[in-house]
Recover the amino acids of this structure.
């Protein structure tokens, strides 16, 4: 599995993501600076968490205009896998690879804590290692995770099984408790929780590793 | 000339910051405040003198970058 982690000015989970990839694949991924204009021979692009461009204008808005994002768009449209975590999810909505928008948390506070998620659809390349409707522990750390999407698009997400993860207890006001969604083609996942922080490194929790392992199996 | 762009959450979209400001104003004794909607003003310095063209192009900028039209509405005023 050839993986690229995109690095924006203000990314701060890029090395965590790379470390998760290393743990699962045995290889350090290619770290791609946002100004680069080429993305060759890559199976999976990871858009990491952080605060690209200081969240200026709106989270992900300026990052979505970076030169490399045109290549990420092309990669996704050609069927390549894209995983957007936290700020990466915000970038994916801003560039239109996923519908909706991540608004400020309804409680107006940055929320950093482990949360329980329900795996809503384990029939995707990202989630097939989970048991259906499994309850998993993945940490969140965000100020703008309050997912909102137009009613017709929400029905579409729900009807097509595109809601990958749902919060068991809603921490941010997200519509329908949505924590992560997948595109209709099944190759782009955006999620606010951080699977790269649940790799069994600091505690026993390896619930995040299952996601990366699922992807690796899908790509072999 | 200048363009003054106002970007605000659409009505019906929950505005947590506006709600917090409402609470703070009421706590200060301004009990007449029922609701607050906040937003941002973006001021652009522009080349040229054609107001109609400027309005058209700045509106395009809003659609592409300055506003997220899923949740935000915008208005554009061109001034000398």
């Amino acid at each position: 599995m050839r993986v690229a982690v995109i690095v924006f000015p203000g990314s701060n989970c890029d090395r965590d993501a790379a470390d998760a990839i290393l743990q699962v694949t045995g290889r350090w991924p290619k770290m791609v600076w946002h100004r680069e204009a080429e993305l060759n021979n890559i199976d999976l692009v990871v858009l990491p968490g952080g605060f690209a461009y200081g969240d200026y204008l709106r989270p992900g808005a300026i990052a979505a205009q970076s030169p490399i994002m045109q290549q990420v768009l092309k990669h996704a449209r050609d069927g390549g896998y894209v995983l957007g975590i936290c700020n990466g999810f915000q970038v994916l909505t801003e560039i239109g690879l996923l519908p909706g928008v991540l608004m400020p948390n309804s409680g107006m506070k940055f929320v950093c804590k482990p949360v329980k998620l329900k795996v809503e659809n384990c029939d995707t390349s990202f989630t097939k290692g989970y048991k259906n409707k499994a309850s998993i522990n993945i940490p969140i750390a965000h100020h703008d995770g309050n997912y909102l999407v137009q009613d017709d698009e929400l029905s579409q997400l729900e009807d097509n099984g595109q809601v990958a993860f749902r919060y068991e207890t809603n921490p941010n006001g997200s519509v329908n408790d949505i924590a992560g969604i997948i595109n209709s083609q099944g190759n782009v996942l955006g999620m606010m929780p951080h699977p790269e922080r649940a790799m069994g490194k600091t505690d026993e929790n390896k619930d995040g590793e299952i996601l990366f392992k699922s992807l690796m199996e899908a790509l072999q | 000339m200048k363009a003054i762009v106002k970007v605000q959450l659409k009505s019906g979209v929950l505005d947590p910051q506006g709600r917090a400001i409402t609470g703070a104003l009421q706590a200060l004794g301004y009990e007449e405040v029922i609701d607050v909607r906040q937003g941002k003003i973006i001021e652009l310095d522009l080349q040229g003198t054609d107001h109609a063209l400027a309005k058209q192009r700045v509106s395009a900028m809003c659609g592409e970058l300055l506003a997220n039209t899923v949740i935000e509405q915008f208005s554009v005023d061109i001034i000398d």
